[in-house]
Amino acid sequence: MKDYWDKAINFEEYVHIGRQRLETPDNQHDIDYKQYYELGLQRMDRTLKKYILDENQVNELKSKNFNGKILIISEVWCGDASSTVPALVKFFEGHNEVRIFLRDSDKSLINQFLTNGTESIPKVIILNDDFTVKNSWGPRPHYGKELLMKYKADPEAYPKDQFYNDLQIYYAKNRGKDAVQEILELL
């Protein structure tokens, strides 16, 4: 895990790479994903502006005496990531170092943390200070998983567009609080 950590980037670099890929795409994937980069950057900006630190959660973090690190596997274009990653970065700021590993740069890390056989992101890897894996979380909070299961159970009654809309409304209102809480429970 130390090698992955060493290759990971900070949040500012992550955002910078997303802007670069949006403004000057250098491959077909970036061209095809232009609208998703745009949305991802907008959502991250909104999350950063609207995020409110919950003192109860901060106190819970302090009570855990967790001295490890937070490694997030992500990509800027991902809707779940754009709503979750900025909140996690802000929450752990000043407590635990957070770095982001770009999933598509090296699939060997995400392949160790598949979700039902898929490379779903974001995936949060909680590392002890010796870089052993304490736990992992992702790609979305429980409520988001419930919405996904509702969509998968009956896509005709609950179409994909409605699922995506409901998920983004939830993220906008929740502002990362559920994701932070679920990760706190894993520390």
Please give a structural write-up:
The protein is an alpha+beta fold and 187 residues long. Helices cover 56% and strands 11% of the residues. The chain has helices at residues 2-7, 11-23, 28-32, 34-50, 55-64, 79-92, 107-110, 142-153, 160-174, 177-184, and strands at 69-74, 98-102, 123-127, 133-137. Strand 1, helix 6 (79-92) and strand 2 (98-102) form a beta-alpha-beta unit. Helix 2 (11-23) packs antiparallel against helix 4, helix 4 runs parallel beside helix 6 and helix 8 (142-153) runs antiparallel to helix 9 (160-174).
Supply database-style keywords.
4-stranded mixed sheet, 187 residues, alpha+beta
Strand percentage lies at 5-15%
Structural class: alpha+beta
The order of strands across the largest sheet is 2-1-3-4
Helix content: 55-70%
The ordered H/E elements are: HHHHHEHEHEEHHH
How would a textbook summarize the main sheet? 4 strands, mixed
Count of individual beta strands = 4
Q: What's this, in brief?
A:
Helices cover 56% and strands 11% of the residues. The chain has ten helices and four strands, in the order H-H-H-H-H-E-H-E-H-E-E-H-H-H. Helix 4 runs parallel beside helix 6 and helix 8 runs antiparallel to helix 9.
